[in-house]
Structures are given as structure tokens and as C-alpha cells.
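ok so I'm stuck.
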Amino acid sequence: MTEGRHPYSQPPVMTTGDWQPVYAALIMILLVFFVMLISHARFGDKDMRRLQKTVLGKEEQKEPPVAAGRYEPVGSLRNAMARAGLSQDVGIVRAGEGVRLAVKGLVFYAPKEATMLPKAELILREVLRYAEKSGSRIEVNVGADCRSNGDGSMTPDWEMATLRSSVVHRYLAMEKGFPVERLKTAARGLSCPAGAAGQAMTAGAVTILLDR
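replied:
not stuck anymore, here's the structure
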């Protein structure tokens, strides 16, 4: 007696969803292989960015633009001083909501002279640019030089410091048209070293405060 069988065997039915796991596994294998190739390759920064744009379709990331009306004072002033070769001569730090610049005296004036040097005018032009953008006040304090007396001691040269202060005021207010109500210049003293006979005159530093 023969077993009951269908005259024709039915082939296995493949549904439309059966190929998706196989395809996903294949893609995963290719992706892993591609990552291994990338990890063993050596790319420069330029080549890597080009690869990211080509393979991933991503544009090179850029720093977000500064919002309109915003101005980064410390970085901008430092960049300007660096372009002029004054990074070692001008210290720039934040001071509250403003900025403080400490300038070496020999950068601003020649010894025993009240006339500003070209680098001093460059610094003041950058200061004016910041003040116009931020609407801040400008305060310039001119340090007095230490001059040697006949007895070997040293004292501040107030007369020269006052004259230099007036030169800065005239340059900013009259030549550059900065509002006098937002401008202050003054001569400041400093403690001169005792027993400094025979030493050369030391130039007083110039401090510029930009405050809102």
C-alpha cells in the first residue's frame, strides 16, 4: 500500500519580505569592510574633508557666523596687534564689560619725547574702531617716566607725562573727532626704584581702558 502523496510537490514559497534581512546583512558587511579600509588608510585633513563630502554628502562644517551687532573685542584687538607685530608689547585683557590694554612706554613714545610714534597711532586707531562699534568710553593713563636726579635717586617726570597725555587727547578728540564727553586722559605716577644712580630713564607704560 503506497503512502498518500500529492502528485506534485509544492516548492517553498518566498515572501517579499525574506530578502530584506539578507540585504541588510550584506550592507552591514560592506560597511564594516569599508570602515576597516578607512581606519588603515592615511589621510590628510584636506583629503578627509573631501572624503566626508563625497561619501557622506556632508558639507564642510564652518564656524557659526557672529550675530549681527556683536563684536568680539579681545580677539579682534589681539589679531590687529599681531598683524602689526605688537603682540609682545601690548597686553589685552577683559575688564568687566570692557577691555584693558597695557602698552609698553617705548612703543608709544620715544625717550624724552612727547610726540607719539607711528605704532602708537596704529594702536589708537584700533581702539577707536572698537569704541565706535561698542559705544564705549576711552580712558588713557600715561605713566610718568622715571628720571635720574643729581643725587642718584629717581623721580617721576610729571611734566613729560602731562604733556604726553595732552597729545593723546588732542589726537583722539581733535584729529579723529572722538566725543570729548566719552574721553579721558591723565598722567599717572609710578614708584621709581631707589638707589638707581646711573640707570637710564625708564619709559612709563600707557594703559588704555575701554569701558561701556
